[in-house]
Amino acid sequence: MGAGGFLTLLNGSPNDWTLGSQHSYQMEKWEWPTVTAGTAARVYVEFSDKSSGLLGGLFGGGKKGDDGGEAYYNIAGTPNTFKVSASKPDDGLLTITLDNSATKTSPQGSVIDLGFRHDGAVNWMMSTDMAGDLWSNSGETIDWMHQSMGSLTNRTLKQITMPGSHDAGMSQYNPGTIGANFANSQAQYLSVGDQLLMGSRYFDIRPVLSNGKWVAGHYSEVEKLGWVGGNGQSLVEMIQQINDFTAKYQELVIVNISHTLDTDNDFKDLNQDQWNQLFEALKGLNNRFTVTAPGTEDFSNKKLGDFITDRASVFVLNQLPGGISLGAYADQGFFNQDHFPLFDSYSESDDAGKMKADQIQKLKDNRNLVADAALRKDKFHIFSWTLTQGVEDVLNPDKAIMNLGVSVFDDLVFDAFNAFTPESFPNVLYVDSLGIRDKPVNIPFDKVSNVGKTADIAALAMAVNNAKAGRNAYITGV
What we know:
Elements: E1 4-12, E2 17-25, E3 39-46, H1 54-58, E4 68-75, E5 81-87, E6 93-100, E7 111-115, E8 121-128, E9 134-136, H2 144-147, H3 149-152, E10 162-165, H4 182-185, H5 192-197, E11 202-205, E12 207-210, E13 213-222, E14 226-234, H6 235-246, E15 252-257, E16 261-262, H7 272-282, H8 304-308, E17 313-318, E18 334-336, E19 342-344, H9 352-366, E20 380-384, H10 401-407, H11 409-419, E21 428-431, H12 456-468, H13 473-476
Parallel strand pairs: 1-8, 10-11, 10-21, 11-15, 12-16, 15-17, 17-18, 19-20, 20-21
Antiparallel strand pairs: 1-3, 2-4, 4-5, 5-6, 6-7, 8-9, 12-13, 13-14
InterPro entries: PI-PLC_domain (IPR051057), PLC-like_Pdiesterase_TIM-brl (IPR017946)
Protein name: PLC-like phosphodiesterase
GO biological process, one term: lipid metabolic process
């Protein structure tokens, strides 16, 4: 048996991808299906492990490095075609050739290296927007919102999907309490700045006071143990990284402030004076979206074009405890939970199957974007594609938070996308380990391997906006 892995073909176009022909040499598995419009297909590919040399050649074994295959796809009803190829320079390589196709970010003739992941998946995603343009997970899509304004300008935020970062500020680990380490506290491998570059637009930031400084914190109150957790990036650093991004890209960035604590004083909730100090620190965010006397308006009903037609916008949402108010800060670009109601319910399980079933069912039960107001369910929906460590996982490096995060990303592209419909899709694809696809935590705990970056989650969000929301006449008006 040779090295096997998957290629997920995500067809976000209105046309089936039909197989023209396929052939292979020395591949153990090379069988390609039709990919129905608006769906994803997961294809298993396996290279051979046959002997090379004279005896191998005499008995049909060939050479290990000669493995290869090609599959030619037609996009039905169009002249467009593309080719899937396999070769084995080392551990295997899958490529896409746009031999008679072009996307907005990759011209005709482009050869796109997807790599190969043993027992994992690589992805090829193409979707078609309302203008008929093809988008893919190749090329430059850092400012994916602005590039998509032709389709998204007049959609409300409730009608748009975006990537989101759970515990966004926990991209590093600084010691906090006894019992905490980076494997059970750090949720993101990339900094907030790099998460932005990989496509994230919704940031779960949890500021805590630690040694008198505002930092990201990840703390939980554990029965019989008390508070356990640690600290991540400083608030100053996160603000600077967001400012650096919005100085260059006219994108909408939603910052959700929650889980605030005073870790210097027995993990008490912040009082009003401390919240005011936090607001003052957050005023360092440039390009804040500001409204005078916002009242009780639900800003998730505003259109994307209201935020970023000619500028970047940072929407600062604050989950305020009882007794805490925005006060004068309500006129300075700060909003509370009444201004942006959320459906946010995670699965609280380390079992991937349970998490997937839970999140897909909650989406089905709570999202129905239809013209009939009596039947419509459209609260801004956080799709928590995250696993939660169990007690038995805390000392298991393979079950580190970041490892759990990457372990379910392949299923987000395949299972979740296929579960979404034009009437029921989420607003935030909410993940740990955003922008990476391989497990970064190994033994010992203090070693984090160097893993490659990927913006596939941004392409996935674009595919949902094009292939799911874009097929809903209530949203598009056509």
